[in-house]
């Protein structure tokens, strides 16, 4: 994150006030210093959140890239070998921190990175349920689940159908 000259000046002024307050300690010093620190944290939060607003185009590119990476992970069969994709693996492929990726996605779409991964899993599951004769357990394992029950629970939570009920709607 890069601060503008004005933003940097605001933070510097707060540090100066804290330093000055520390020079002459009295019964109010602690509260005044804490108030200044709280103000500085508010500014920092503002500057951090502002970057998401000013980077909409980069954010949408990030969303596309995120979806490409997750889809490629599932399409390559890695899920069956390594389990569900982790946010850490996806973020490292884009060279950003997992926290930053999650914050960007939440700001852009209102959903966490985990919710996006789950949506992609459900889309892949729907495709397999409607176009293959694989059992629900086989689909669960292909999508990286260690237990089919976990897959069934996620699918039901996201679609309000069990995987078998969803498949039956296509027959």
TrEMBL record:
SMART domains: HTH_ARAC. Residues 68-169 form the HTH araC/xylS-type domain. PROSITE patterns: HTH_ARAC_FAMILY_2. InterPro entries: Homeodomain-like_sf, HTH_AraC. Pfam families: HTH_18 (PF12833). The keyword Metal-binding does not apply. This is AraC-like DNA-binding protein. It comes from the Bacteria. Keywords: DNA-binding, Transcription, Transcription regulation. It comes from Sphingobacterium zeae.
